[in-house]
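Encode chain A's predicted structure.
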Amino acid sequence: MKTKQKPERFIDEEGKRVDGRRPDEIRPIHIESGVLNRADGSCYIELGDNKIMTAVYGPREVHPRHLAEPDRAIVRYKYNMASFSVSERKRPGPGRRDREISKVSKEALESAIFLEKYPNSVIDVFVEIIESAAGTRATSLTAASVACADAGIPMRDLIASCASGKVDDTIVLDVNEVEDNYGQADLPIAIMPKTEEITLLQMDGNLTRNEFEKAIKLAKKGCHQLYEKQKQALKNKYGGN
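Encoded structure for chain A:
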């Protein structure tokens, strides 16, 4: 995606979006696990022009110790956009948006982890957005889940996360940057694909009930596509069919 201006139309006469995709197509996906030697688990993901690195440390002892929970592990999730990740340089350090994304992502990830297996410990998840092109909260959560699996942390299932949206009164999968900036709605979700249990659901914009149900169904379709790529990335590192 080169242009950042609002197009006259988001979907042309042939049913193609501004980046050439059909409404139900996800952007190209690349996932690699175990890319950082000094982390317990790690993942690098590209979704379209998004480029994100995730590292996991733990379970390990909590510092400061008063934060420890005697019956379970705690998760600390830090989402950070590098200053150079967007076209207009971002001020260094976490902002309000970063803290909000960290909170909801932590809660979504916790749903999948058997926290009770590691009392008095912490799992630290660090997410660094190297290049941002819409959908980074969902994409980073997908990567964080792979990094946790790479670290050997027991999980009910991987978490796969994707967004759907609305442009030109049409529900589309995996909104790109222009669609995110100027579209009518954006709906990121996260699920555990085996059961389709939703662990994150947010919405910006307005959808009718029928549109909402279609957007959820389409986002789940994207999550399942990501899930296959997640499993393949882990198989590529550890082998297996």
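Residues 73 and 118 are 5 Å apart (CA to CA).
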